[in-house]
């Protein structure tokens, strides 16, 4: 049976699901992949999934794989022999066309990125220009306020005993009602906001709605006679302006990568300082040393460009005129090192005490039985501080009012002498003005106080050394002791007086004063006050989130 039966083939027909892998096509013939096709497919899978290298090179389509029911079983196939069969000239043209297409796509992406960067840079420069213009306008108002103060004090000096207490009480009441976050210098509010995460608590410290009141309130305080300056308020105003500028464009859908709240606040604050002092380099140093202390900031070009743009724009509009006039300076003899260190020691002690008094406040210095009343009656406390300032003004020939710019300029130029004990009187006047709780900075009053202390030290020398040198170094030393920022103090004084040759001695005096002041006030005053504002903002934000009206 088996010998008569012919043998037949028992090869089974492949299942439809295996046709794609076996290489069968709709024509029923088997066409296995050639080696060039397989290598091209593998290379295509590595480079760009879903796009065939043969197709990009210009190969012709050979058909689609189909199942037994006639439905398409996969993407179209491209034959490599059609590519190899093309003439060499056509192959070259196709390769060049492919490369040009890829190059055009790459350049289009690069131009898109460039246009976004250009837009960001333009908006950043626009914000810096706005900060510079606001700072210039603020400076003009402050100068006008000082002129008004000098006019009424020179004619009706006795009226200060009545007018200054009343003005301080009214300004304190307005500050509490309109802008409680605008009290004081403004730099602690900026530092406190930088240490907070983005949110309502951070925005409240540099809110444009409250910060805008700082300009008219500071103007009225200077006109009344407060021993304050506009530089600290300019820092807070600049931060609020830059933050509002960035939020304005973000709400309108402009993609601003890198325009984070911290960077905007830092750029605006440092730009405001650079514009206020007409010192671009000092703004950069202030941003790095003071604002960046204990705060995580991404020091990109955003911050530095914003600061420099604001500073240089003020130079372009107002001229490169030093704040206190050009001092110049020259190399000092070796024996002056002793006097420089003495300046650092004396200013360090007085600056440390000054910073300590500001940190404690009126309630911290007063007897324990009075502290509760002082905290519960801020308006009456402000009136009492105004009366103390009026008494100090009467004892110092009314030279402690305002910034003290005229006295410091006369001491620095050597053309005039300040009244007796001017440095100590200016220190006390600045303390009571700050304790009143009205808007006003301490930068310029601290420089003026240092100038007065330098005059006192010169009187001890018997005229053996140049008075201007001691005045200059004492200005930087006292500011460094009050803020514990020696680099910022040295660069500010250098740019404000045009004394680049004296930078080394300014640094020596400022560093020594900062070390001594730390023994009296371990924590820098600005950061101590920033902690208070930060905790207050967090508490208020928590109450608002819970819906607590209190």
Summarize the structure in words.
- The longest helix has 68 residues, at 88-155.
- Helix 5 packs antiparallel against helix 11 and helix 22 runs antiparallel to helix 23.
- The chain has helices at residues 19-22, 35-47, 53-57, 80-84, 88-155, 160-178, 187-194, 200-205, 208-211, 214-224, 231-251, 261-277, 280-291, 301-318, 336-365, 368-376, 378-395, 405-413, 422-435, 443-461, 467-483, 486-497, 503-517, 525-546; strands at 61-63, 77-78.
- With 550 residues, the chain is mainly alpha-helical.
- The chain has a two-stranded antiparallel ribbon with strand order 1-2.
- The protein is built from 24 helices and 2 strands.
- The protein folds into 3 domains: 51-81, no CATH class; 116-318, Orthogonal Bundle (Clc chloride channel); 336-530, Orthogonal Bundle (Clc chloride channel).
**Contiguous helical run count:** 24
Poorly predicted runs of 5 or more residues: 1-34, 40-51
The strand order across the widest sheet is 1-2
List the domain count as a whole number: 3
CATH topology of the largest domain: Clc chloride channel
Features:
two-stranded antiparallel ribbon, transmembrane, 1% strand, 24 helices, globular, 68% helix, disordered N terminus, Clc chloride channel, 550 residues, 3 domains, single chain, mainly alpha
List the helices and strands and how they pair.
Blueprint: H1 19-22, H2 35-47, H3 53-57, E1 61-63, E2 77-78, H4 80-84, H5 88-155, H6 160-178, H7 187-194, H8 200-205, H9 208-211, H10 214-224, H11 231-251, H12 261-277, H13 280-291, H14 301-318, H15 336-365, H16 368-376, H17 378-395, H18 405-413, H19 422-435, H20 443-461, H21 467-483, H22 486-497, H23 503-517, H24 525-546
Antiparallel strand pairs: 1-2
Region (Disordered): 1-44, 57-80
Organism: Bordetella petrii (strain ATCC BAA-461 / DSM 12804 / CCUG 43448 / CIP 107267 / Se-1111R)
Membrane topology: Multi-pass membrane protein
């Amino acid at each position: 049976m088996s010998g008569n039966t012919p043998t037949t083939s028992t090869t089974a027909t492949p299942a439809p699901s295996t046709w794609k892998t076996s290489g069968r096509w709709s024509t029923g013939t088997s066409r296995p992949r050639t080696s060039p096709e397989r290598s091209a497919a593998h290379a295509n899978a590595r480079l760009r999934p879903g796009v065939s290298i043969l197709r990009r090179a210009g190969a012709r389509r050979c058909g689609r794989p189909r199942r037994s029911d006639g439905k398409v079983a996969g993407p179209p196939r491209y034959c490599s022999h059609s590519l190899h069969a093309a003439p060499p000239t056509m192959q070259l043209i196709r390769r060049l066309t492919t490369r040009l297409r890829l190059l055009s796509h790459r350049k289009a992406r690069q131009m898109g990125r460039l246009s976004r960067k250009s837009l960001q840079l333009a908006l950043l420069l626009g914000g810096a220009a706005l900060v510079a213009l606001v700072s210039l306008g603020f400076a003009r108002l402050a100068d006008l306020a000082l002129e008004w103060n000098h006019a009424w004090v020179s004619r009706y000096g006795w009226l200060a005993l009545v007018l200054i207490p009343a003005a301080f009480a009214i300004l304190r009441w307005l500050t509490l009602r309109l802008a409680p976050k605008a009290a004081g210098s403004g730099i602690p509010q900026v530092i406190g906001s930088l240490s907070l995460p983005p949110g309502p608590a951070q925005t409240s410290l540099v809110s444009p709605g409250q910060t805008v009141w700082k300009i008219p309130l500071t103007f009225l305080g200077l006109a009344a006679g407060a021993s304050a300056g506009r530089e600290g308020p300019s820092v807070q105003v600049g931060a609020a302006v830059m933050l509002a500028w960035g939020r304005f464009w973000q709400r309108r859908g402009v993609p601003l990568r890198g325009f984070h709240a911290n960077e905007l606040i830092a750029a605006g604050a440092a730009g405001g300082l650079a514009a206020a002092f007409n010192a671009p380099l000092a703004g950069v140093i202030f941003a790095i040393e003071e604002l960046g202390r204990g705060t995580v900031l991404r020091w990109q070009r955003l911050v530095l460009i914003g600061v420099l743009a604001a500073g240089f724009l003020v130079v372009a509009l107002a001229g490169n005129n030093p704040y206190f006039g050009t001092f110049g300076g020259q190399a000092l003899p070796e024996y002056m090192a002793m006097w420089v260190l003495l300046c650092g020691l004396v200013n360090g002690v007085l600056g440390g005490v000054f910073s300590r008094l500001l940190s404690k406040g009126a309630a911290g210095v007063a007897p324990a039985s009075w502290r509760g009343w002082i905290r519960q009656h801020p308006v009456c406390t402000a009136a009492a501080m105004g009366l103390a300032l009026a008494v100090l003004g009467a004892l110092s020939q009314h030279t402690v009012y305002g910034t003290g710019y005229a006295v410091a300029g006369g001491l620095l130029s050597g053309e005039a002498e300040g009244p007796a004990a001017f440095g100590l009187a200016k220190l006390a006047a600045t303390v009571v003005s700050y304790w009143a709780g009205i808007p006003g900075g301490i930068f310029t009053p601290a420089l003026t106080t240092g100038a007065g202390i330098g005059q006192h030290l010169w009187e001890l020398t018997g005229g053996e050394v140049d008075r201007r040198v001691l005045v200059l170094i004492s200005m930087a030393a006292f500011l460094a002791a009050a803020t514990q920022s020696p680099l910022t103090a040295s660069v500010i004084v250098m740019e404000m007086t045009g004394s680049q040759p004296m930078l080394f001695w300014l640094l020596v005096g400022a560093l020594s004063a900062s070390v001594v002041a730390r023994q009296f006030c371990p924590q820098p005053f600005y950061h101590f006050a920033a902690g208070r504002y930060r905790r207050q903002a967090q508490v208020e934000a928590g109450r608002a989130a819970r819906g607590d009206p209190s």
